[in-house]
Protein 1
Amino acid sequence: MAGVGSAVRRLYLSVYNWVVFFGWAQVLYYAVLALRETGHEAVYAAVERPLQLAQTAAIMEILHGLVVYFLIGLVRSPVSATLPQIGSRLFLTWGVLWSFPETQSHILVSSLVISWSITETIRYSFFGMKEAFGSAPSWLLWLRYSTFMLLYPTGITSEVGLIYIALPYMKASEKYCLRMPNKWNFSYDYYYSSLLALLIYVPGSPHMYRYMLSQRKKALSKAKAA
Amino acid sequence: MKVTVVSRSGREVVKGGIDLKDSAKVADLQEAIHARTKKYYPSRQRLTLPLQPGKGGKPVVLSPKASLSEYCEKGSGSLTVVFKDLGPQVYYSTLFFFEYLGPLIIYPMFYYLPVYKFFGYEGERVIHPVQTYAMYYWCFHYFKRIMETFFVHRFSHATSPLSNVFRNCAYYWTFGAYIAYYCNHPLYTPVSDLQMKIGFGFGILCQIANFYCHILLRNLRNPSGSGGYQIPRGFLFNIVTCANYTTEIYQWIGFNIATQTVAGYIFLVVAASIMTNWALGKHSRLKKASLFDGKDGRPKYPRRWVIFPPFL
């Protein structure tokens, strides 16, 4: 039973990782194509669908992490590291870019989408290789644990920049806001929540960066010892 | 006897060790370490016996009131202890005082001061009776907590790490402001008079019950603070292990029924989950094999709800 179980797990994770890999590869390809043929204003329209699909599919990864508590354990990444990452990605994809079209023609969309898609194609092919073949080539391991050093700063800067640009549109449109008076004496302001999100980037970014640095140390020294 | 004090990495914390009388207690050792190291006053020290290599499990913590000889290997006149610095400590009473003081002061600020002008709400504010009662209820609650901190509670540990002050104050003060903002809002919508009376009435009953639970818990511990676990008995403790948490949660339910704010309910859920976590730990500690398992003449811990009949 255990043998069948882990084979199913491996098959599922291989398929998942390779499918999402192709999603992100598409994003990267269309982004670069649009950038070269037209210009940065056209990048969003070119990548919208594959971006939304590939990014939203990542919710599965929260489930994979949670399954740890109930079954044998699907993946090793802690929920505390995946949740903020996926949270910020979904916020940008749906809560900023899709909700406020005024942001879509900005040049930061290009840097965002290219940073994300390079990172994700490396990451998903790395996991895809490990699940399908048992191990990943050392150059891919190196890429996986090194490119973040450039791509985290470029990606985070793009995220913060785009949220900042969207702020006036959030305020003016009152989108996603709930006002008083109401029976439940509750209110929600999307503009202020986004400001709060921006504030969270201040301690959050060094935290994520340091986490990746410590993961890098562990992974690369383990590879050396092997 | 000779005591060697090492850090977890093996380095000697007190060079040359410490010489003490054979009859010395752990507290004497802590005083001696403090004398030699200046920085590490006793409540900052965590002393454990070295773990045997290969053996798992948690290290044995030295209890301050015990004799050092209890921890020595039989026959030898020496002892090695592992030292861990717990960081700067504050008294639990200090910690509780500051975390409760925040809500006590912040909530009335939203009630009495023209705070909402800064949020863009000009003009006169109509204050509904329920908002006044809510302010009194809230302030009484935190006043009660402060009084209990100084006159009722007997703490198992005297101190808590300093970092907890910041963490706990952030929790209480932020939620206090968040709830106070909505409860005192110029556009606040009150519930029916009947619902308000039911909410506050139930809440007050639960606060009284909660106070009585605290008195019962106090009487389980003797004044010298010698600690140790007892089976709580009497009143609601006969049916539920952590009746004090139960009554506290129900008391917040009462407040929320009367005031009806999403912010209040969010706080209720968060507070209830924190307390449930504690209750599960307490319940399992009390049922633990070496304490109340009914064997060797020990009393057996009775079957009881943990915190929330009939669910948990």
Note: Chain B has seven helices and six strands.
Protein 2
Amino acid sequence: MERQIINKRKRVFSLQPNKNPNALFARRYVSHLVPALKKINMNKSSLKTNHQSFEKTVKHEVDMAFALSAQEFAWSRFLQQKLLSSPHDDLISTSSSPSEILERSSKKQVGEKYQDRDEEEGGEIKKRLKELQKLLPGGEEMNMEEILSEIGSYIVCLELQMIVLKSIVQDNTS
Amino acid sequence: MLEGLVSQESLSLNSMDMSVLERLKWVQQQQQQLQQVVSQSINNSPELLQILQFHGSNNDEFLQSSFSQFQMLGSGFGPNYNMGFGPPLEALDECISRTSSCHMEPVDTMEVLLKTGEENRAIALKNKRKPEVKKREEEKTEKKIKVEAETESSMKGKSNMRNTEASSDTSKETSKGASEIQKLDYIHVRARRGQATDRHSLAERARREKISKKMKYLQDIVPGCNKVTGKAGMLDEIINYVQCLQRQVEFLSMKLAVLNPELELAVEDISVKQFQAYFTNVTASKQSIMVDVPLFPLDQQGSLDLSAINPNQPTSIEAPSASWETQSQSLYNTSSLGFHY
């Protein structure tokens, strides 16, 4: 019985690593992110940068790895373009610190309560679509159908990215 | 991304080959019957529609029996077919090219049209995007076959209505046969009773159905969407979820930045292996993974409790609330993560 467990332990890897899209994404993501982080690490020791710009650089690399590992989707192309066009140092992250984001979201919810009763459903949906457009990279140039198609893949990729980041972080804290 | 789906499809196709051959013979019989109709009506779509309806109403009894095998096929395709948008159409293409390589040219369009019960819109979309694979010589015969396949599909649609209960748009005479004529890009839609039949409203309806299909797909992905009804509520949930995910990613990247100096990045090999093991269909070796690779131990540091992932006990994700703490304690049902294309 124990031998079976031991034998099972040996074969933990997939025999067909390219078949599963989740694994593919995760592998690509890690292969992009980790070297980038290493490079940042090396550079950091040479320059004296403050903490915030360092964070921005890391965030930039994270987003870059994200965009590069999901090449099949339109939003990834948009994201790539955006990242490449904005320079590293002056990178103003689209989503600010968590506290600000919380404020923004709570404001939105409060504002909506008053408007919900007045506007008809079509208007509500349009409003939400606009919000969605802002969230999705490249959303401004898409119509409703495209947004809906892209959002599905975007959400799944975000989830996968989270799992990857979580496990990287946990590997290094434990 | 498509390989997994295509392999499923090819498996189902393998089991269907024998009946496909039978169908081929049947089709050739039908060709003679419908040849005149085809030659007359190939250019004019409204007439075609009428003729289709005419044939449909007259030949129902006769064709219903012979369509039983089609339904079998249709239902056989059903469970294997994941609803999705862009990629499944390409999977469809691959399946069709596969069958065409087996010298079943007249049959492949049939196979496509057999899925008319639910995948009509997919086929309609496919028409617009279908690559020019077929040769010039075959086009003529193809056109004829496609048109007659259309008649069969519309009639099959009718008989399908009577026999299948599960289809969502079984209302009296609703069916939507998608034309596969490459040069002319028509979508033949049979209007429901009492509804407008002009082009604009039909196109509108097609568009709306596409959108609702996508919304259903999103409902599966975004947790907590099942309880909410209506587009607006669902969009709200989706927005919330996306924001939540983005925030979490930011938080994690910040944490990573904090850790970065001490990062032992030789860990990359281990990480990659972990992911491979984690994401593959590991129903057989789930036990071993749980034992061997402690992927997601509970975070001891307190503030971030994201990791209570336990593949053996799937739990659903709670709807994100406003506070940061409760959001960070969402539980994942990781087996549901996947590209449902």
Note: The helical segments of chain A are 2-10, 21-46, 51-68, 74-85, 98-118, 121-135, 144-173.
